[in-house]
Amino acid sequence: MGVVGWAWAVSAVLSAAPGGPQVVSPLVKVRADAMPKGAAQARLSAARGECEATQVVLPKGVTRVTMKPLALKGPGAPLTVDAWREAYLDVKTPSNGQGQAGPWPDALVPLSAPANPRHPTVLYVEVCVPRKQAPGTYAGSLSASADGKELPEVPFTVEVQPFELPATSSLPNSFGISLYSIAKGHGISAESPEARALLRAYGKALLEHRVSAHGMGMDPPGVKFQDGRAVVDWTAYDAEMAPFLDGSLLPSGARFTTSDVRDSKKASTDAEKTAYYRAFQKHFEDKGWPAQLFFYAKDEPKPEDVPLVKAQSKRVRDAGGAIPVLVTTPLDAALQGSADILTPTINCFYPREGPQTCRTVANTASVRSRLPARAKVWWYQSCNSHGCTGGTPPDAKLDRAYSDWASYMVDHPAPLNRAMGVLAYSSGVDGELYFDTVFAYNTKKDVWTDLFEFGGNGDGTLFYPGTPKKMGGSEHQPVVSLRLKHIRDGLEDYEYLRLLTELGDGAFARTAAKRLAKSGYEISRDPGEWETVRREVTARLVKQWASEQAKRSGRRTSGGTP
Fold first, then answer.
1. In the predicted model, what is the mean pLDDT of residues 258-270?
2. pLDDT grade, residue 11 (50/70/90)?
């Protein structure tokens, strides 16, 4: 079989019979008032080391779904197929003028979880390909039943491509998470072994989606000071963090790309703080952890915070300059020289007509030219791009200024949830920050019914608390969102474009990226266009990969170093 599209049934596939399962692109959010037309079979394409998925829409009114285990057979070991049911969030206040009230799919719950028959019945079906999987065609049939009634089987094919994606994201990133928020969301004690195990499960889920985390257990390691040195007890810290930093947590060997310095209140003077930072850096060096350690300075500093940020920066740099200081701000003369990782919001990188939502707008190259040579440029999302009040602004120009940006909101189109990876490639940023993934857990609201924060539905919350009461059974578990899957897919988009560039076809990769996202607010919402571009990128990668492997084989044959 030749190269096929991403994770969508190609247009040539015959439509599914009415009333039977419908295979639908994962870049379509299936809503009750806009049921998409599907196909009768699923055909996926995936690199080695990549996860790809599709959606299977079942008849309406279903309360219980079961699926027979499915392993796709091909030239290598069978590929396991996993499936979840999509649960819906009832959006009451739209995130902005492009959002919409009503039920939106987001939480991916076990098939055994109770269903709401008023909502569409949609399965999110995923295949993760090991990095050493034999390339070729893998096939099988998905068999499911709805309320005890057997449904027509869905032919399921995956074409495993010969090229390979790295297990660890090539784009550094850091998304926030907190043991204390997790414990509160699940209604358990943060000091309990159950909470610690749950934190590891949440961190593992992030790592499985190519995302690194800051915060985690939050508590700094114990420290005392002797003769100007910081003597640190790393026992608890290493027990928590080592699996994420040494590659031992997942079979793939994936690791966090970054990790934050946890400030300690026991360091009371500038000298003690500097000694503590120096000990932190030395511990990472002694362990051989390749993650970029960074210090997260005062978040979104106001003018009155400038002295604090400068003092923080000086203390960290006095530790030897090996720990970069991250500051979430646009270019600001008052903070000039304080940041080693300058991190503006995405709307600060793209000029746009109308009301300005960032005080200093400059593209990555311009920002970098005004920073020290070693400084990095990251970016992040916030309500600065989707609007901080929610609903449609009365001013049409303001509504337009806050619309169409890449977004992690529930009630925004899936391509906007996914676009950050493509934009990161074309913009040339060095990394991505996101402030939290469980923010709503720390509020008094029911996360399952209300994710409205900072004017957006889902801002700062990419998980749902899978409590026994909600999921059934006796164990707590993290429930990932459809948006986290889109973020993962975007990071894989980045890997495709980066790899194609490394193999000498950067011009094609740049053109392909621009076809999907001309800017941070000019993003194609057409799943067919995304499919077409990925199919073309895949074909170029297969060709370039084969050429590179032939070159390496020739070098080995001639006695050169591969």
1. 97
2. very low
Q: In the structure, what pLDDT confidence band is assigned to residue 559 with cuts at 50, 70 and 90?
A: low
Residue 233 neighbours by CB distance under 10 Å = 11
Give residue 346's pLDDT: 98
Q: Minimal CA–CA distance to 347: which of 317, 315, 384, 378? A: 384
pLDDT class for 528, splitting at 50, 70, 90? Answer: very high
Per-residue pLDDT at 115: 86
Buried b (16+ CB within 10 A) or exposed e, 131-167: eebebeebbbebebebeeeebebbebbbbbbebbbeb
Residues listed for the chain: 562
HSE-up (13 A, CA, CB side) for residue 48 = 16
User: Residue 287: exposed, middle, or buried by beta-carbon count in 10 A (0-12, 13-18, 19+)?
Assistant: middle
Q: In this structure, what are the phi and psi dihedrals at residue 198, rounded to the nearest 5 degrees? A: -70, -40
Query: Rounded to whole angstroms, how far apart are CA atoms 101 and 88?
Result: 12
C-alpha closest to that of 427 among 371, 368, 385: 368
**Residues 119 and 40: beta-carbon distance below 8 Å:** no
| pLDDT of res. 560 | 57
Domain ranges of the chain: 173-347+360-385+398-404+431-481
Residue type, 363: N
The number of beta carbons lying within 10 Å of the beta carbon of residue 269 is: 10
Q: How confident is the model at residue 6 (pLDDT cuts 50, 70, 90)?
A: very low
DSSP 72-120: EBSSSSPEEEEEEEEEEEEESS-SSTT---EEEEEEEE-TTS---TTS-
**d(Cα 255, Cα 245) in Å, to the nearest integer?**
5
Going by their DSSP bridges, the two strands 463-466 and 477-480 should be labelled as: antiparallel
In whole angstroms, what is the distance from residue 521 CA to residue 151 CA?
A: 41
- Assess contact for 133 and 123: CB atoms under 8 A: no
